[in-house]
Amino acid sequence: MLTFEEKLRIIESFPQLKRKDVSLGRVNFSYDESILDKKNVVYHLHPNGNGYVYGAHLRFYDTDEKGYVNIRDYSEKALRTIIEKSIHFMTEKPAGEQTPEEEVNETWKNREGHTLTLVQEDEDVWNVYAGENLDNMFGTYDEAVDYLLEEGFRPFTK
């Protein structure tokens, strides 16, 4: 388990996060550029090492009723990953960032006829959508494809 100081060092390495000291020695880190009403990325990081990162949008993380993931036992890599995913989720994609020729937009179907769409949102962000709802986020195309295959989906061609 990382210490409070180690977690602080990792979190403070994200220049887009703004630190705010709160009660009982706890610290919050907000992302003021968030397009959501939610601004806190890191919530109530406590000197005992406990704390939370916003992850309501993340499918394979256990969240509390407010959408936060407990990071008490997280490694440095896991902590960096969830913070990056949280910030990305709160970030609006600038208009015109990619031309349509560069974007990947694939339709995948399963045997029951359910459809998911794989979209490259950024150079290193691949999102899977169920309709207009975000189903999951991945750092690589291969990770996204592995997920879709494991869930029983196959590429759909018209």
How would you describe this protein?
The protein has 158 residues and is an alpha+beta fold. It folds into 2 domains: 4-89, no CATH class; 105-153. Helix content is 21%, strand content 30%. The strands form 2 sheets. The chain has a 5-stranded antiparallel β-sheet, covered by helices on one side. Strand 6 and strand 7 form a beta hairpin. The longest helix is centred in the middle third of the chain and has 14 residues, at 76-89. Mean pLDDT is 86; it is low at 94-101.
Distance between the termini: 50 Å
Helix content: 10-25%
| Helix/strand order, N-terminal first | HEEEEEHEEEEHE
Largest sheet: 5 strands, antiparallel
Radius of gyration: 17 Å
- Helix run count: 3
**Strand arrangement, largest sheet?**
1-2-3-4-5
Strand content: 25-35%
Structural class: alpha+beta
Shape: elongated
Spans of at least 5 consecutive residues whose pLDDT stays below 50 are 94-101
- Average pLDDT works out at 86
Number of strands: 10
* Total number of distinct structural domains: 2
Structure summarized in a few sentences:
It contains three helices and ten strands.
Helix and strand arrangement:
Elements: H1 4-12, E1 18-21, E2 27-30, E3 40-45, E4 52-54, E5 68-70, H2 76-89, E6 105-109, E7 115-122, E8 125-130, E9 133-138, H3 141-150, E10 154-155
Antiparallel strand pairs: 1-2, 2-3, 3-4, 4-5, 6-7, 6-10, 7-8, 8-9
